[in-house]
From TrEMBL:
Required cofactor names: FAD
Source organism: Parathielavia appendiculata
Pfam families attached to this UniProt entry: BBE, FAD_binding_4
PANTHER family: BINDING OXIDOREDUCTASE, PUTATIVE (AFU_ORTHOLOGUE AFUA_1G17690)-RELATED, FAD-BINDING PCMH-TYPE DOMAIN-CONTAINING PROTEIN
Leader peptide range in chain numbering: 1-21
Name of the protein described by the UniProt record: Glucooligosaccharide oxidase
Family, as annotated: Belongs to the oxygen-dependent FAD-linked oxidoreductase family.
Length: 500
């Protein structure tokens, strides 16, 4: 373990936030409507309000018009109808981990539908399908599915992330190269639409809406219940670390080129999951192999030979043990209360293979600028695509998620820059903006995109939609026009309805 790494956040106890900055005038009307409809709410300034309004990303704190806290589908439906009637925008909040605070609306004055009181997880032993309420966090979901039948589906690593945002917009983790994204395991969803109707979606019911939900769900309604198919939880998984002696820019550029070639040409077997991780003081490969430790050693050796590197640590574990390994948390089964926060700016990319000259300029920046930055930054490069990736086996038009080509979508990146105390510095943005520009310099716009689960709120709405949805944007805009023409489920980077 690496005690210095706290990738799932640090837990900070904050002073009480106040709701008195509210700039909206529709608050009384929304309160009256929710009250008449008997929808539970947080009283402003109450302990629950303070807990529910607290943004995971403290850089982006917003004040809602009201916070509804449903415990039933009918409560969600009534809350959506109130928002439509009063004319306020409405956004569901599941785990609240949006990098841009989109669960709070991404701006002041929205109705927030805080879903975390709805976190039941029930595995049907006959069908092996898990019914998951929309406010459950990933650690809770994984724990309960495992307890009820030793089953699992693939998803991200941090136990506090909400299933709602995560699974509707991708959901990548250390089982994704083997088993795909979280959204690839959704087989059905119950959805509250903008006009206040509740519909079922699946491959056979409301198919277009189902397609849109799996990649862009926040734009089309509030998912009130998920159905996930599952696989038997693997009994043998091997987590590992390879420390890289990438001390100078040419070592980084050459090593990365070898890694890229290995991934692109099918050297990485389906069972392997891997990311390149770098921060100010460590550069390593981290990963999880679906198999025992001797099988891992055999499978990774060709890469290690090319990199002139050795395994630094290997631990064999079962499904929940391997999840705990990368959870960086004592507690896995997390529900309420939850108080983790960070203060950060993050950017993402998905790219095709990079040229040697691009790798050299990235490496120069890494050594000359990033390693001299004293803030707590990190870069993660996920070995996302390639010929053996389960994600890219799914046809490109099967869901609205845009990154399914094994060659074009080779790497998924997360650039993350946080301050451990105090506010984020105004000169901080350029640090990541300048680095990201180097990655895309030699690529045309079809060769890169961005991942809304690592939303960058400094993109304008037009640029964000294109970056997040690529070739699927036109169809999404048509469906937005059909299901939410008045943009009730608005946030600053939401899909806009088609004009014609
Ligand atoms: C510490 C940390 C670790 C992370 N690790 C990973 C990782 O390993 N892999 C990965 O892919 N991502 C990861 N992420 C990103 C994460 O997947 C996204 O931020 C995700 O959107 C968070 O979901 P949420 O429900 O917690 O957030 P929220 O802020 O509650 O929601 C995010 C968005 O989804 C919408 N939404 C939420 N619930 C619903 C619903 N029921 N119906 C419709 N729309 C809904 C919200 O309105 C909002 O627009 C991580 C984020 C953090 C902060
Ligand atoms: C959640 O599960 C518990 C226990 O089975 C049950 O009492 C409760 O009604 C369920 N809640 C919802 C909203 O379904
Ligand atoms: C489902 O199966 C598990 C064993 O795999 C058992 O412990 C559990 O009680 C079963 N649940 C139901 C609801 O039948
Ligand atoms: C860069 O690092 C590599 C590996 O440690 C080493 O072999 C090489 O000599 C170094 N090159 C320079 C220019 O320092
Ligand atoms: C890119 O760099 C790698 C490693 O340094 C090298 O093997 C490869 O031949 C280079 N490719 C090109 C096209 O120059
Ligand atoms: C490890 O897994 C491999 C491949 O599945 C298998 O052949 C081998 O017997 C296993 N070794 C041990 C020690 O379990
Ligand atoms: C490989 O790494 C070792 C250190 O473990 C080093 O001594 C050796 O010079 C390296 N070989 C090459 C070809 O870089
Ligand atoms: C949105 O951002 C893009 C890319 O930065 C820029 O080209 C475009 O002009 C911006 N559009 C608006 C309306 O500001
Ligand atoms: C609500 O919207 C859906 C999807 O557009 C539509 O099928 C349904 O008829 C609408 N219901 C009402 C009551 O308007």
């Amino acid at each position: 373990m690496w005690p210095s790494l706290k990738l799932c956040s640090m837990v900070v106890v904050l002073g009480a936030a106040t709701a008195n900055a509210l700039r909206v005038t529709k608050r009384a009307a929304i309160d009256d409507c929710l009250s008449a409809a008997q929808v539970p709410v947080d009283a402003p300034s109450s302990t629950d309000w303070v807990a529910d309004v607290r943004a995971f990303n403290q850089r982006l704190q917003y004040t809602p018009a009201a916070i509804a806290v449903p415990t039933t589908v009918e409560h969600i439906r009534a809350a959506v109808s109130c928002a439509a009637k009063v004319g306020v925008k409405v956004n569901p909040k599941s785990g609240g981990h949006s990098y841009a605070s989109f669960g709070l609306g991404g701006e002041d004055g929205h109705l927030v539908v805080q879903l975390d009181r709805m976190n039941n997880v029930t595995l049907d032993n006959a069908t092996q399908i898990a019914t998951v309420q929309p406010g459950a966090r990933l650690g809770h979901v994984a724990t309960l599915i495992y307890q009820q039948g030793k089953r699992a589906f693939s998803h991200g690593t941090c136990p506090g992330v909400g299933v709602g945002g995560h699974a509707l917009h991708g959901g990548f983790g250390f089982s994704s190269h083997t088993y795909g994204l979280a959204l690839d395991w959704i087989v059905g969803a119950t959805v509250v639409l903008a006009n206040g109707t509740v519909v079922e979606t699946s491959e056979t019911q409301n198919k277009d809406l189902f397609w849109a939900l799996k990649g862009a769900g926040s734009n089309f309604g509030i998912v009130a219940s998920f159905r996930f198919k599952t696989f038997p939880a693997p009994t043998e998984l091997s987590t590992y670390v390879v420390n890289l002696r990438w001390t100078n820019a040419s070592a980084i550029a050459e090593g990365w080129a070898s890694l890229q070639d290995w991934l692109k040409t099918g050297g990485m077997p389906r069972e392997m999951n891997m990311r390149l991780f770098g921060n100010g003081f460590q550069t390593q490969l981290q990963g999880m192999y679906h198999g025992n430790s001797s099988a891992l050693r055999t499978a990774i050796q060709p890469l290690l030979t090319r990199l002139n590197a050795t395994l630094s640590s290997v631990e064999q574990d079962d499904w929940m043990g391997a999840f705990a390994h990368y959870a960086y948390s004592q507690q896995i089964d997390i529900t309420r209360p939850y108080s983790a926060t960070e203060t950060f700016y993050s950017k993402s990319l998905v790219t095709s293979a990079l040229s040697n000259s691009t790798l050299q300029s990235i490496a120069n920046y890494w050594v000359n600028t990033a390693r001299r930055n004293s803030r707590s930054w990190y870069l993660m490069v996920d070995m996302y695509g390639g010929p053996n990736s389960a994600i890219t086996k799914v046809p490109a038009d099967a869901t609205s998620f845009a990154y399914r080509d094994p060659n074009t979508h080779l790497f998924l990146y997360q650039f993350y820059d946080r301050t451990m105390r105090g506010s984020y510095p105004s000169d901080g943005f350029a640090f990541l903006d300048d680095w990201v520009k180097l990655f895309t310099a030699g690529l045309d716009t079809t060769q890169w995109g961005m991942y809304i689960n690592y939303a960058d709120p400094r993109l304008n709405q037009t640029a964000a939609q294109e970056a997040y949805y690529g070739q699927n944007l036109a169809r999404l805009r048509q469906l937005k026009k059909q299901f939410d023409p008045a943009e009730l489920f608005y946030y600053p980077q939401a899909v806009e309805p088609a004009k014609a």
